[in-house]
Each structure stands twice: as structure tokens, then as C-alpha cells.
Amino acid sequence: MLTKLLKYEFKATARLFLPFYLVLLVFALVNRFIDFEQLVAIDAQVFGFGVLEMFGFLARLLYFVLVVGIQVMTLLILLQRFYKSLLGDEGYLMFTLPVHPRQHIVSKLIAAAVWITASGLVTASSIMIITARAGMWEVLQRAVSVFGSAFGVTGFFVFPGALLAVMASGILMIYAAVALGHISPRHKILVSLAWYAALGFASTTLLFIFLTRIRAPLQEITGVINDGMAINLGIVWYVLLPAVVLGAIYFVLTNYILERRLNLE
Amino acid sequence: MSDTILECRNLTKTFGRIAAVNEVTLSIPRGNIVGLLGPNASGKTTFLKLCNKLLTPTAGEVLIAGHKPGNESKKLVSYLPEKTYLNDWMKVSEIIGFFGDFYTDFNSGKAYSMLEKLNINPKDRLKTMSRGTREKVQLILVMSREAQLYLLDEPIGGVDPAARDYILDIILENYDPATTIILSTHLIADIEKILEQVVFLKEGRVVFHRSVEQIREESGKSVDSLFREVFRC
User: Fold this and answer.
1) How far lies B226's CA from each of B212, B220, B232, in Å?
2) Domain that holds residue B180
């Protein structure tokens, strides 16, 4: 059932994301070929004032608007796919399917994580399109080899793993806040926002306590796990462990509300 | 297999201080077309949502073929809500694929043949359809399942009188005597001819539950006139 949910989740979201990505990459290409010196020269020769220069500037501005737009859109769609498709009118369909609520949460979470990653990669690619210069590939390769010698092969798994865990925990915090807002009889959106702030505050406080109190024993554990790489990789565990624990708490909370306290009004 | 398809005991749902469904105790046997009748705000929609686990009861319980509402009951129940719940960007054919993917009892051949009879193009997107047509699509999807229990909330409420007869025909055509249909409405005269049992709901309580035959024998009245008598303002 999860694969079927994922199939429809990606179908519903790809139609929104893919055209946006395409526009961003096209604008990056346009910006790549904008040579302001040349535009100024043509302007001086042909128009006598900065017509092309203005268009060039506009293209650059639009590119930045698109970059910001994609990040905002990713967040909004992530929210909308949970709020509208589960707790809005579409929820009447989704919650009458023979599917467990936890599968709904997992499918939304996987799709959201994939799109956040994709939006990040497309944005990074668009920046590369604009800024790529000869010798850049070598610089990148050197950066990878420096990273490899510092953290070893494990680093290539642990760092993205930690990033993914932090991302998942962040998404699940949003879901938990929306679900908590849902059980309020009134002002659901406002209550969700208040819960988001409260969960954010509580999580940061817990993270702070964790970092200050449990530092020493954790270093021992990571020392064993990483076999000597604790000095470098140990820091990741401080991020990874709390993210996994908090993410699990948010997941259980959201699942409990969708399973036991659902009220689609 | 138990003879009872739906059973509730002291089922209650309150919103603030208002009890939308109030200590309802009810047992519906298999193989009946049951009218859930009551004026506006009598608790019909809330009752059907409780049976589908879209609302959590404040007290009491409901059992579908012995199961508490959940994954098992959802496999048995085909529910038509009073809302339009479909993605409007999807084509009808895609929604049929969606239902086929999730419900093992969904018969897509049946759905396509009903669409054809109602002149609805499966390639059309819901976005381009009128509200009435969308409601017809929803009813077709719901009736194309070979479920044990159909819960239909106002299936004829949004369509014109000419289409009502056709919709009732769809319901009857797809009705297998082993299954049960519970449909809520306040348009009693239109559906009276297909009903076998009626449940009157008033302010969230069951005030009356009889077979249509019993009503005719005991009072000599039609369901419609009995309804008008019970709910006279």
C-alpha cells in the first residue's frame, strides 16, 4: 500500500515541481549567457541608453526570485500535501482507503524529503550553470578528496545520513504541529502555528540539555563505533541522535492523532 | 458470518456542548436498503462519518461486521460523503485507476459502463465538470465497488430531479441482496420506493427504526407522510 500511496503522492506533486525546476534551469542558462559588458556596448551603439542592460538585470532578478520561490514553494507544498490532502476534504477519500495512518505519514514524509533534496540539487545545479568556469571540476574533485581524507568513506554516509535525519525530523515537527492544531476545536491554523513554535522551543531546549549533559559518554560510544574517527565524526552523532529521537516522537504523536483523534469536520 | 452488518452501542459525538449523535444504539442486519432519515442537523452525516472513522466518538462504539472502524472495516465499506473529495486535477480514468489500486473489490468495467450510460467522458478532468457531474462520478466510483456495506450520504441531494431516478436505478442495479445500503436523505418521497427499512434521527437520537412493511401495516401511511408527522415543526 505504501508504494501505491507514494505513486500517487509523486504524481500529485511532480506536476507542480517539475515545470518550476525547468523554468529555473532555463533562467539559469539565460543568465549564463548574459554578458553585461557586451550588453552595455550594444546599448551604447544601438539605443543610446541601457535597454539591453535593463533586460539583463531583469533576467538576473527573476532568477533570484525563482530561487527564493522554489524554496518557499517546496515548504508550502509540503505543508499543503499534509494539511489539505489528509485533513481537508481530500481526507474523506484518503482516510477511507484501507491504509493505516502511519503509511500516509511515511508516504508524505518520503515525498517531502525527496522534493526538498531535489529543490536543493536543482538550485545548486542552476548556480553551477551560471558560475561554472574552466577548472571548476578539478576544484570540486579536490574538495571531495579533502573531505574523504578527513572523514574517511564513512563520512560520505554519515553526513548525508545526519542531514536526512535532521530534514525528516524537521518535516515531522511540522506534521505534528499541524496534527496538534487539528484536534483544537477552533482556530486550527493559529493553534498549529503556536504548536510549531512550542515544539521548536522544546526541541531546542532538549537538544541544548543533551549537548551539555551527555557529551562525555556519547564520545565514548562514538569512539567505539567509529574506531578512532570519533574526533571528526563524533560531532555528527550529536546531530543525528537527537534528530532521530525527536523525529520518532513527532511521528508517534502525529500517528496517534490521525489514528485515535481524527475529526474531519 | 454474523447477520448484523452494523451495530452501535450508545454511540455519542459531541461538538462543544452540542451532541450531534446522542447515545445511538442500533443494529442493522445484512441485506437491506436502509433510509437514514431526519431533518437538517439531525446527525445523519455525523453518524456516517463515525462509521467511517472520519470522526472519533466521544463515547460508545460502532462495529462494522464485528470490526471497530479501521483497516478491516474500510475494506468492507464503500462510502459516499456529502463532500466532493476527489483531486480535481485528475482525469476520471486516473481516478478509476486510483480506486482499482486501493480497493480489491473495485470493478472498473462496471465504472466505465456507468460512465458511458451517463455520457461522462473518462478522459475529462474533474476540474472541467459541473458539481452535479462530479457527484455522479463519485457515486459511480462508490457503487463500482463490490462492498458489503454502502454508506451513502445524500446521494441524490445535489442532482436534478431528472437524474435522481437514474441514480436510484444505479443503486438498485448494483444492489446485491447480500449487501446492505444505508443512505441518508431528507428527500424521502424520491427514495421511498427503494427503501426496506427506515431509521428516523432527531437531534442526534434514533426516534424510530422499523421496516417499511411494518410502517405500512401498523399505520397505513407512507414513509414520507409518517416523516412529516414525526418531524412536524
Assistant:
1) 11, 9, 10
2) 4-230
Q: Are B51 and B9 in contact (CB under 8 A)?
A: no
Please give the pLDDT value at position A223: 56
Contact between A98 and B74 under an 8 Å Cβ cutoff? The reply is yes
Q: Which residue matches cell numbers 422499523?
A: B210
The backbone torsions φ and ψ at residue A210, rounded to the nearest 5 degrees and listed phi first, read -60, -45
In angstroms, the Cα distances linking B171 to A190, B99, B174 are 43, 18, 5
pLDDT in tens, B96-133: 999 999 999 999 999 999 899 888 999 999 999 988 88
In angstroms, the separation between the Cα of residue B175 and the nearest Cα of chain A is 21
Degrees, nearest 5: CA angle B28-B179-B184: 55
Tell me which of A13-17, A244-248, B156-160, B174-178 is least confident.
Answer: B156-160
For residue A91, the chain B residues in CB contact (below 8 A) are 54, 85
Q: What's B199's domain CATH number?
A: 3.40.50.300
| Residue of A10, A93, A259 to mutate when probing chain B, most B C-beta within 10 A | A93
As a 3-state breakdown, chain B gives helix, strand, coil percent values, each rounded to 5, of 35, 30, 35
Residues 6+ positions from A139 with CB-CB distance below 8 Å: none
Q: Specify whether the CB–CB gap between A253 and A245 falls below 8 A.
A: no
The tally of domains found in chain B comes to 1
User: Quick one: angle between helices A51-87 and A136-182, nearest 10?
Assistant: 40
